[in-house]
Amino acid sequence: MTEMARPREFDEEAVLDATVQCFWRYGYEATSVKDLTGKTGLTAASLYNAYGDKRGLFRAALDRYTSESIGNRIRRCEALPPLEAIHSFFEEILRRSLNDRQHKGCMLVNSALEMAPHDAEFQKIIDGVLTRIEGFFLGCIRTGQADGTITPSQPAAVLARHLLGVLMGVRVLARVRPEKALLEGVIAPALAQLVPPEDGPN
C-alpha cells in the first residue's frame, strides 16, 4: 500500500510568491537558504521537504512567475484586437519597467542570462516561455494581417521575432537605464512598423 502524499502545511501560493521576490531580486546563485527562509518564514527543512532542494524551489518559483506575470499578461492581451493587443502588451512592459524601483527587471530574462547558457534544463524551460511569447506576437500579427490592421510588408514570423527581440532588449535596458524616453524610443519604432502604409503618417 502506497503512502498518500501529505498536504502542504503552509500557504503554498504565499510561499512561492515570497520565493519569487527573493530569486527575482538576487538571482539564483546569490540567493541563499537564509534569504529564502527569512522571506518565506519557513525552515530550510520545510522548504526542502516540499521542493527537494534550492533548484527545485527555483523551478517552482519560475513557474509561478511565468504563470502569474507573463501568462496572465498574454491572456489579458489576447482578448483585444490584434494591433491593440501588441500595443497593450508593450504598454504594460513599459509601465512595469519604469515602476521597478529595485531595478529587478524580468525574472525570466534574468534567468535566461544567468542560467540558460550553462543549464540545459532551465534553457529548455526558458526557451518554452519565450516561444510562447513569440507565439502570442505571431498569432496577433497573422490575425492583423488577415484583417488589414497590420502591415503585410514583412512575413508574420519575421515581425514576431523582431518584437521578441525588442522585448528582451527593453527588459535588459530597464535594469540599467529605466528612462522613459530611452525605452519608448526602442518600443515606438517597432510598433510603428506594424501599421499598414495607408494608415501611417502622410
Automatic annotation (TrEMBL):
Protein name (database record): TetR family transcriptional regulator
Residue ranges the UniProt entry marks as DNA-binding: 32-51
Keywords: DNA-binding, Plasmid, Transcription, Transcription regulation
InterPro entries in the cross-refs: Homeodomain-like_sf (IPR009057), HTH_TetR (IPR001647), Tet_transcr_reg_TetR-rel_C_sf (IPR036271), TetR_C (IPR011075)
One Gene Ontology MF term: DNA binding
Location of the HTH tetR-type domain: 9-69
SUPFAM superfamilies: Homeodomain-like (SSF46689), Tetracyclin repressor-like, C-terminal domain (SSF48498)
Keyword NADP assigned: no
